[in-house]
């Protein structure tokens, strides 16, 4: 009588290791990637040694070490970074969100980390604005600083597209400009990444002058975006994804992020 085959956990684990190792032959020492980064502390910035540093840089550097794969880091503002990837002049950009537009010219990796966007207001002003979401904010006279081209959440995109936020939005050049306008009472608040906003406030000496509003804005995942036009060996991307999954499983991603505070 034929007996059913029931693979053991050890056998499944061995098969996983074998599959992960398959791409390594073609993505080994010859692997070389040109990856673009931008100034976005604490995720991406310049370290004390003058080299790229930050959460995203450490995560991708550790992944490249495990693959192994050599990396050439190239700096560019985010719009330029995405254009370089779209044109195949760079192999990847790190720490970006997933959008339909970017899927047209890139290949998203496994998520390298999670993050959240929050509403930043002046210290003691959160209770003055009892909003539960952006929809209720849009129905008020709240002055919202917005960096052109930013995609804070799906709700934000829907409200912007419908025109519901048109009376609220005040354009700001960047996060630093938004912080300065907030302190001068030219805006009531602005949306930014949680870690990014707190890091910027600390650098500007304004950590005690702002509050994170309790309103939910967005939780999101950040990815590496590989260029379709660069014709990267698919085995390299497969290997990168497998290594990132391994780093998540063994706690490396959590450890690196925790080094930058809560």
Automatic annotation (TrEMBL):
Coiled-coil region(s): none
UniProt keyword terms in alphabetical order: Signal
PROSITE patterns, sorted: PROKAR_LIPOPROTEIN (PS51257)
Superkingdom of origin: Bacteria
Listed SUPFAM superfamilies: Periplasmic binding protein-like II
Source organism: Niveispirillum cyanobacteriorum
Protein name: Uncharacterized protein
Classification via SMART domains: PBPb
């Amino acid at each position: 009588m034929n007996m059913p085959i029931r693979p053991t956990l050890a056998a499944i684990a061995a098969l996983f290791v074998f599959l992960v190792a398959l791409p390594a032959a073609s993505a080994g020492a010859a692997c070389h990637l040109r990856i673009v980064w931008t100034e976005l502390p604490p995720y991406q910035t310049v370290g004390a040694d003058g080299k790229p540093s930050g959460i995203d840089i450490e995560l991708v550097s550790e992944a490249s070490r495990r693959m192994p794969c050599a990396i050439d880091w190239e700096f560019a503002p985010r719009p330029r970074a995405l254009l370089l990837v779209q044109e195949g002049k760079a192999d990847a950009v790190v720490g970006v969100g997933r959008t339909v537009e970017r899927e047209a010219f890139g290949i998203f990796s496994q998520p390298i980390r999670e993050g959240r966007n929050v509403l930043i207001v002046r210290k003691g002003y959160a209770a003055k604005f009892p909003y539960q979401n952006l929809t209720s904010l849009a129905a008020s006279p709240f002055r919202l600083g917005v960096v052109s081209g930013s995609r804070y959440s799906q709700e934000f995109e829907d409200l912007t597209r419908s025109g519901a936020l048109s009376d609220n939005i005040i354009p700001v050049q960047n996060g630093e400009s938004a912080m300065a306008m907030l302190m001068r009472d030219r805006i009531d608040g602005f949306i930014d990444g949680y870690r990014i906003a707190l890091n910027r406030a600390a650098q500007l000496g304004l950590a005690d002058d702002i509050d994170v509003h309790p309103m939910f804005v967005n939780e999101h995942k950040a990815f590496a975006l590989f260029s379709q036009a660069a014709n990267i060996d698919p085995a390299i991307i497969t290997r990168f994804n497998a290594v990132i999954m391994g780093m998540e499983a063994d706690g490396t991603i959590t450890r690196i992020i925790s080094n930058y505070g809560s």
